[in-house]
Amino acid sequence: MSLVDLLQFLAAGRKSGTLKFDHGKITKQIYFKKGMIVGSKSNDPREYLGQVLLHYGKVDEVQLKIARELQRTSGAKLGEVLVEQGFLSEDDVLSVLKTRTLDAIYDLFVWTDGDFEFYDDDPLPEDLLLIEVEPTTVIMEGIYRIDEFARYHTLIPSDRTILELNAGWTSSLKLGKEFRQVLFFVEKRMSVAEVCYHMHASAFHVYGQLYTLISEGVARVVGELPEDSPALVKEVEDLPESVTEMVWSAERKLDEDPDAALEIIQKALQQQPNNPEAQALLPVAEEKFIKRVYETGGISPKSVPQLRAVDLTTVQIDPQEGFVLSRINGSWDIQSILSICPFREADCLRMIKKLMERGIVEIK
């Protein structure tokens, strides 16, 4: 089914439930109540709150960095931290959250393929920010984006496209701040995907700006990166907010970074200890993490860790790390230490790994 037909079908049937989309590692959900769209969630890092705030100019990168550090130490949500620090008002945060909800849906219209499932009468997530939007309104905006994207592609073939500035362009040209940012990245011969990354913006938004620059003779297309080139940009670094986002984010990281996936799942379970998705994902992440540590971490079950000549009174060690350290005596191997520690194997290995990274423990 086309996305338009699908949304029309659910609206006409006054359906309630969850419409889930998958495309590669990206998962999105649209929530319906009696045929109305009442919310959405996404695991696309570009659609996390921090990136959306940057895109709409609500905060700058310095403010976001400060808020992120405070969020990591306090465990509070990003929006709460930004309000506490006086960077934003509660109304600002609420407005951006509603905008993000719709942007995540509109982005689906530029997908070329994907899989969907509908969960009839599925209950709404407890932490869902509720909106109320007629599907017809969303469909009209979506059709507009489909048509516009087709127009953009007549000049910009793909996100691998490389542009450069035309010789006649001068800095005296009257362009807004955002267009000047785009020009700065074009001048560095970045691909379209890289421009999207650095602009903290959606592909639709950036393609529109680049199309305008090409149409007005400011820039021109000079080539494309090959399809089999390495990842065009690193993954956007941001923290998921809700438990649902955390679970999806962890799923995306399972194969490439099981350590990060495990940490995210544990944070999700701190917020909702009985969350079934997080509970099911935990042993999978632990297994992948343990395998990765033994394969690439310079550790094996028979390795014997030793304390380095470090003044432990000068380093910060939590009680659990202290317990593990007290069992590192230069003769017990990893397997023996794991057998007597009252922690899960993955947790114990993570602590040993971090103690090694901090230079407190070494393997000889």
Overall shape: globular
Radius of gyration: 24 Å
User: Mean of the pLDDT scores?
Assistant: 84
DSSP strand count? 8
Strand order of the largest sheet: 3-2-1-4
Reading the helices and strands in chain order gives: HEEEHHHHEHEHHHEHHHEHHHE
DSSP helix fraction = 40-55%
Largest sheet: 4 strands, antiparallel
Question: In DSSP terms, counting alpha (H) and pi (I) runs of 4 or more, how many helices?
Answer: 15
Strand content: 5-15%
Describe this structure in words.
By secondary structure, the chain is an alpha+beta fold. It has three domains: 3-150, no CATH class; 154-224, Arc Repressor Mutant, subunit A, CATH 1.10.10; 299-364. It is 49% helix and 12% strand. The chain contains 15 helices and eight strands. The strands form three sheets. It has a four-stranded antiparallel beta sheet. A two-stranded antiparallel sheet has the order 5-6. Helix 6 crosses helix 9. It is globular and about 70 Å long.
